[in-house]
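thread: overnight batch results

M.L. [08:02]
morning all. the overnight job finished for the chain we discussed friday. pasting input first so we're all looking at the same thing
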Amino acid sequence: MTNTMTEERLKECLAVVENALNDMKAKNITVMNVEALTDVTERIVIADGTSKRHVRAMADSVGAEAKQAGFMPIGREGG
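M.L. [08:03]
and the structure it wrote out:
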């Protein structure tokens, strides 16, 4: 675990992301633990959408919900 986020805060962040994706009807939401593979991040969230427009909307929604909850996304794909 990095020094910047506690386990509780990480769980809160993942809940915000997963809820935003569920609200946008994302498919195959997967959370991968990459803590042992990189020092940059601890989890990666992957989800499928039905079209490029859908994926872009999902990425926008996750970013907006994360910022509203006090998290600052550092990167995203799909938008």
